[in-house]
Amino acid sequence: MQVASMYFKERAHVKLHDAQLQYNLTKIKGKFVEKRRLALTELDDFEGTRDVARAIRQRALDDLDVWLTIFEENARARGATVLYAQTPAEINALVLEIARRHDVRKIIKSKSMVSEESALDHAIEAAGLTVVETDLGEYILQINNYEPPSHIIGPALHKSREEVTELFHKRHGKPRKEGIEELCLEAREELRAHYLTADMGISGGNFFVAESGSVVIVTNEGNATLTTTLPKVHIAISGIEKIVPTLEDVATLMRLLPRSATGQSISNYVDLLSGVKGPGEFHGAEHMYFILVDSGRSEVLASDVRDALRCIRCGACMNHCPVYQNIGGHSYGWVYPGPIGSILTPMYVGLEKALDLPHASTLCNQCGVVCPVKIPLPDLQRKLREKEFERRLRPWYERAALRTWAWVASRPALYGLATRIGIRALRTLADRNGMIRKLPLASGWTDERDMPAPAGRTFRELYAARAKTGATAREPAGATR
Amino acid sequence: MRVGFFVTCLVDLMRPSIGFAAIKLLESGGADVFVPPAQTCCGQPAYNSGDRADTITLARKLVQEFEGCDYLVAPSGSCSGMIKTHYADLFADDPAWSARVAGLAAKTYELTEFLVGVLKLERVPGTFAGTITYHDSCAGLREMGVKTQPRALLAKMDGVRLSEMAECETCCGFGGTFAIKFGEISSRLADNKCQHIVTNGAETVVLGDLGCMLNIEGRLRRRGDATRVMHVAEVLAGDVPET
Q1: What is the DSSP letter of A6?
Q2: Is A418 exposed, middle or buried (0-12, 13-18, 19+ CB in 10 A)?
Q3: Burial A176-193 (b: 16+ CB within 10 A, else e)
Q4: How many CB atoms lie within 10 A of CB B219?
Q5: Contacts of B35 in chain A (CB under 8 A)
Q6: Interchain proximity A460–B217, CB inside 8 Å
């Protein structure tokens, strides 16, 4: 996908003033936040389960090379082919090579965010093949001229039902359907024929299970089941970090994934696919491929933001992020939005192209407390801020302001003098209500807010005066505003 | 019991009355309050902007000033959280300083947490009459675990009626330099918070962090709303600022 993360502020500005989007975004709280809260009450020990889930993911990452080797052996033993893609371009090249090998004309796809990294659909179409997205959200985006997804589990979350009604009417040429169920049925009618005529199915993968060489796919629409079992060829594409050692680990993670994501105790469908269709078996592809994608992941593993690789893509961090809730996913400018995106995007596309993202957070840590695998998201954002500072990627004036403040604050006498002068100067800007309407060099604050003016004397000077006169605990005159 | 009072730079510069109110509360609970005279800033602005070296300089200075006290108390969840939960990260490679930082972190408290948990304050010195709504600041809530303490203290005041607003735990959008770098997003978050405050209808919004206070008060006034904004220390001490 084209990177637009360098335009974060401009994009956020547009989204903040998009009334339809703002209305659509209000649904996040009911749809995800409240449902998750209720679903977690079903667990006897959410914190304990989180600790175990964190440990499972960490164990996989600590010896990732070993688990990948075990996965490879077990997948091969079941007749699958395991391939690695180092770059997004390699994902596309591998898919097209497999398509050629099996004379594929039409490809159906269930949801895969990793394939968004490489804009796989565009590469497939450029090669003259047909590709059809079967996840309802992805399908909506595909028929809307490949609009980018705005959420990792609800890619068309930014759209209202009314917008989908119009889109379906325009694209399918059928009478407008108003109800969600009718819309789903219309999408199903459109998609059914494709399932039956496709030569190849591409899916993502929520987990790769080392001990069995399987892929686990979590969906609500059943489209992944059809995509991976009806065509003769199945390719599962996901990141190398999606390995988990055992099936029992999957069972534990599945207690948290649907609950954290959509507030479901369990998703409608969980596919566990192991190898090709065997003799006498009814279901399954004849040819099965795994494309395990690195594309920046081993660099993340070697960095100080490696905890981000524990992510199981539930989306809870973005659902609970006050910034995401107000600007939506498109503002972030790449595949992964929200708090986790503010780590992964700079790491995968380059920090220079996404300078704002690690800063686009109040560090409120709402994301950190909801993350089912305890990724310390604000700490990781701060680590990337440190990298930007070290590499001098921040504006000179920001750097100068910070360094000056720290220089002054480490010299108490100078600090005392400078702050006494500074706040008196600020005080002169106050209106009669004690508010500053316009702050020089800080219009970001005062464009839409007042700045309450300082009281006029610092605590330090008032306290020193009190100590001198031996006053009691009463504050001296002039301490209040 | 020698309590080192960390005023915090924002209180020092913007609203010293909060510092005096906090001292009054600590003294009313029997604490012997000591205010290290050379204190300045905990280093959080530098830390959250990625300037690690300057943060370390300021952190060392603060540790030296306060480690001789039995406790460090600050009228801020954000600044106490910086010391208690983030200083350790700065000195991970330095065993000697690591130990000193751990020692200080263990005795660092947010004001209301200290009043309830350590001083076990029975009576609060101030009087206050009116309906209030409480905004939980992010660092206080999620780093320091401050949630019940301010409410428990406010419940001791006869005239106070607490009316919880919707989404009282959602960030107000301050976020330090975020408020200036992403002013438009920050203002929207502040506006959402103000909307909840106004809908709630309380006469006064009370909170425990000056950053949130400046942000919420600033946005309320720009909206033309006169709802009073007070630090919890001011309410508990009965030091009602003139409006």
Answers
A1: G
A2: middle
A3: ebeeeeebeebbeebbee
A4: 26
A5: 463
A6: no
d(CA B184, CA A447): 8
- Among 2.60.40, 3.30.450, 3.40.50, 3.20.170, name the CATH number for the domain at B130-237: 3.40.50
Give the contacts of B169 (CB within 8 A, at least 6 positions apart).
A366, B136, B141
Single-letter code of the amino acid located at A369: V
Structure tokens at A78: 């079941």
Long-range contacts of B96-100 (CB under 8 A, 24+ apart): B97/B60, B97/B63, B100/B63, B100/B67
Please give the DSSP secondary-structure letter assigned to residue A14.
H
- Cα A245 to chain centroid distance, Å, stands at 24
3-state SS assignment for residue A464: helix
Contacts of B189 in chain A (CB under 8 A): 322-323, 326, 362
Q: A452, B214: Cβ pair inside 8 Å?
A: yes
Report CB contact under 8 Å: B16, A455. Answer: yes
Amino acid at A228: T
DSSP strand pairing (B130-134 vs B204-207): parallel
* 3-state SS class at B207: strand
**Binned average pLDDT, 10 residues per bin, chain A of 481 residues:** 95 98 94 96 96 98 98 98 98 98 98 98 98 98 98 96 97 95 96 96 98 98 96 98 98 98 97 94 93 98 98 98 98 98 98 97 98 98 98 94 95 96 95 94 94 95 87 46 43
* Location of structure tokens 């001791």: B156
- For residue A386, what is the nearest residue in chain B, using CA coordinates? B50
Q: What percent of chain A has pLDDT over 70?
A: 98
All residues at 6 or more sequence positions from B202 whose CB lies less than 8 Å from its CB, including other chains: B131, B132, B133, B163, B165, B227
Helix, strand, or coil here: B87?
helix
Phi, psi of A254 (to 5 degrees): -70, -15
Q: What are the structural domains, with CATH classification, of chain A? A: 1-39+310-393 (no CATH), 43-295 (3.40.50.10420), 419-469 (no CATH)
Considering chain B, tell me which residue range(s) the CATH 3.40.50 domain(s) occupy: 130-237
B182 near A CB under 8 A: yes
> Could you say which of B40, B173, B239 has the minimum Cβ distance to residue A322?
B173
Q: Tell me the CA end-to-end span of chain A in Å, nearest whole number.
A: 53
HSE-up (13 A, CA, CB side) for residue B155 = 7
**Which candidate from A387, A423, A475 shows the least CB-CB separation from B13?**
A423
For helices A412-427 and A459-469, angle between their N-to-C axes, nearest 10 degrees: 110
- Residue A89: CB atoms within 10 A of its CB come to 13
**Amino acid letter, B233:** A
Nearest to B185 among A327, A445, A473 (CB): A327
3-state DSSP call for residue A471? Answer: coil
Global pTM reads 0.96
